[in-house]
Amino acid sequence: MSATASSPSALRDPSGPFADAVVDGLVRGATAANLGLTAEAALGGLNFDGGPEGDAAFPAHRLAQSAGRAPPEVAGALAAAFPSSPWVSSVRAKGAYVNFVADPARLTEATLASVLAFGPEYGHGESVAPPLCVEHTSANPTGPFHVGRVRNALIGDTLARVSRAAGVPVTTQYYIDDMGRQATMITWIWSKPREAWPAPIRAVVDGHETPGEKGDLHYGRPYPAVSAYLKEHDDAREEVSALVREIESGRAPASHRELAKTILDGMLASLARLGVRFDEFAWESDFVRDGSVDRVLDRLRGAPHAVREENGAWAIDASGYGLPKESTHVVVQRGDGTSLYVTRDVAYHLAKFARFARLVDVLGQDHQLHARTLDALLAEIGEARRPSFVIYQDITVPEGGRMSTRGGSAVWLDDLLAEAVDRARREVLVRREDLAEGAVDAIAEAVATGAVRYHILRVAPEKPVVFRWEDALSFEGRSGPFLQYSYARASSVLRRGDADRPPYPFEAARLSDPEELALVRLLARFPRVVSYAARSAHVQALAGYAHDLADRFNRFYHAVPVLKSGDERASRVALVAAVRQTLGNALDLLGVPRLETM
RNA sequence: GGGCGCGUAGCCUAGUCUGGAUAGGGCACCGGGUUCCUAACCCGGCGGUCGAGGGUUCAAAUCCCUCCGCGCCCGCCA
């Protein structure tokens, strides 16, 4: 993480002036000591992550090497030549490193002032980045979400939240694939009277339905059986193929889109509990209907590496685009004239590029090749822009293998949430006998969804995750509920100090306990964490930061009295208010519900 | 076979992009803490050849090469 030496406003990033002072002092000191050091090199070498020796550290090795001197000697010279600065209270050479300590009073003053002034905006940026479209989830409307799919939604949703906070105008989109075989299989089976369903498909439905069940559960139930059945019955498979052609040619039965919508509504209701909402929905069929898929096909057939097959199909010889050798023959139009998923996806991406300067697609690792093929086709038709991809690994089950609907290894999101709510309810009831029924339910829901969100977001997307119930339902340690608990605890302190409400006057000099200063340093770091998470798409950095802050706050809470303190009381209350604000902002970005009490 | 990703204590994980000082957390386990602002908490202890080997470098969990293990993909499916 690098310093924001060019931070537009000291107020937005309270650690900015300190970083500027260190860089500036290093450069000037180096010059005085006859060592060449540019501001850029100083910034690049500096570590602001806060080691045990101070708030910033500068390794002198590189500079020593170019100067032909010993690193400890150079470090000593840099420290000695460092000009005094009000923001830097201590400059000390230790071994080959120069350590800098920020002036506690100034840092405290700037940080609390910034947090309390910006409030819900603290940590947010004000960049003028061009509009970004984040496409995520985009699961086929064929049945309920399982936990594996939810990883996509949570990564995408959080990326959108943190990008917005960083100052980027973001639109989220869900691409609904209502054209392909998957969605068609649903229409195929439900357009038949129940008596006409093949026995193995009927078997998974009859006796398993409950009145009033969600649309995704109800209409998606036969899907795995249909999928299995089609593998072994050519006649049925041909019926589905015929239906696919009908749909693509614009003669879809009325029930087709209705079914997709009903199932989708059920899926979205589950995601909404996790705080995931979409700005826009893009229906694949719309791109076929409005002719944009045809226009893409025109361009592809006229492209430099277009190849016509014997049966009339069209392909692109994409061997010049760095795809794996076996995957360079990309069929873009079938022999029967219909398009393929990747072709339609080109049309979709062109439509997005017409409105957004930058595109991010969140995709499972099984779509990696698709992503690269899409890139190749965009290049082939002369489109210079490319989407960027956030690829995440699958969630596997302990027995091995991917979580899948067909293999029966899926853990449904709704079941996970039901179990989590159940457990959270029991936890609340043993702690809080004073609460009314409705309040218990509200807390249980927030704890449950917060736990699930955090559990998935805490891990880097590129890491595989093995789903275990006991881990997913953990309410302790590095978990969503731990953050919520810490937030509720800070809220409780503020609530009990009846007279303590904004603007929380404070005196920085009264916050001199090591626990207090550690908290202040962490608070000051938040803007850089937000900016880094948005820039790198490492949303797990936010999860880590929130835990660190909550952890530090709890240590402070146990070590330092707030409401029962004397002259320090008002300042400590202000510190608690700043922690509550910052932790709350971090929770918002993670989509973990804030809880005032629990 | 090829492509992509992953491999950090008994288990989970941060750090890897941008190489820097004794590799941070959590769970589990052991020992403590509640007449005191929320014990879903805190304090202490235990536990690491950062998959293996080689290379680059003053310096490697981090970069490069080889190998091993695991996952995914390689359809006129999506």
Topology diagram in text:
Blueprint: H1 16-32, H2 39-45, E1 56-59, H3 61-67, H4 71-81, E2 88-94, E3 97-102, H5 104-118, E4 132-135, H6 147-165, E5 170-176, H7 181-190, H8 199-205, H9 215-220, H10 223-232, H11 234-248, H12 254-273, E6 280-283, H13 284-289, H14 292-301, E7 306-308, E8 314-317, E9 329-333, H15 341-353, E10 358-364, H16 368-380, E11 388-392, E12 395-396, H17 413-431, H18 437-457, E13 465-466, H19 469-472, H20 480-496, H21 514-536, H22 540-559, H23 569-590
Parallel strand pairs: 4-5, 4-10, 5-6, 10-11, 12-13
Antiparallel strand pairs: 1-3, 2-3, 7-8, 8-9
Helix pairs in contact: 1-4, 3-4, 5-21, 6-21, 7-11, 7-12, 10-11, 14-15, 15-16, 17-18, 20-22, 20-23, 21-22, 21-23, 22-23
The protein binds one RNA strand of 78 nucleotides through helix 3, helix 7, strand 9, helix 15 and helix 16.
Account of the 3D structure:
The protein is of the alpha/beta class. It contains 23 helices and 13 strands. The strands form 4 sheets. The protein has a 5-stranded parallel beta sheet with strand order 6-5-4-10-11, with helices on both faces. Strands 1-3-2 form a 3-stranded antiparallel beta sheet. A hairpin with a 2-residue loop joins β2 and β3. It starts with 15 loop residues before the first helix and ends in an 8-residue tail after the last helix. The protein binds one RNA strand of 78 nucleotides through α3, α7, β9, α15 and α16.
